[in-house]
Design a protein that fits this description.
Elements: H1 2-25, H2 47-62, H3 66-85, H4 95-111
Helix pairs in contact: 1-4, 2-3, 3-4
């Protein structure tokens, strides 16, 4: 159960960071240096991974087995990797915080014990 609380906290932090970057990217005063592929809402590019992560959290919370824990870690890492793939869409002003948050989240996922 301790792992579940840690993972839920991680998901909440990741969601808040994502929302924060989305909101700040809409500020016309930001200096934006975005790749040409960022015209569309980039959150749709990570939706599959986010959904899989949410499903894995649900499965683990219902049945906290080592197998479901490992599935949860895999889904979490896939989500973080997908977020790294859209880094080009994060305003330059926020990229250092974005990278740090992703690195910390990935480390926390990987430190979670499934035993």
């Amino acid at each position: 159960m301790k792992n579940l609380k840690k993972i839920n906290k991680l998901l909440l932090i990741t969601g808040i960071l994502t929302l924060g970057f989305l909101i700040s990217s809409c500020d016309p005063t930001d200096v934006l240096k975005l790749d040409n592929n960022c015209e569309n809402n980039w959150t749709t590019e990570v939706q599959d991974e986010l959904t899989a992560y949410g499903n894995a959290i649900s499965a683990y919370s219902t049945d906290p087995t080592p197998e479901n824990c490992n599935d949860l870690k895999k889904a979490g890492n896939n989500y973080i990797d997908a977020l790294k793939d859209v880094e080009k869409c994060v305003p330059t002003l926020n990229q250092a915080d974005w990278k740090k948050a992703l690195e910390e989240s990935k480390a926390q996922i990987n430190e979670t014990s499934c035993e």
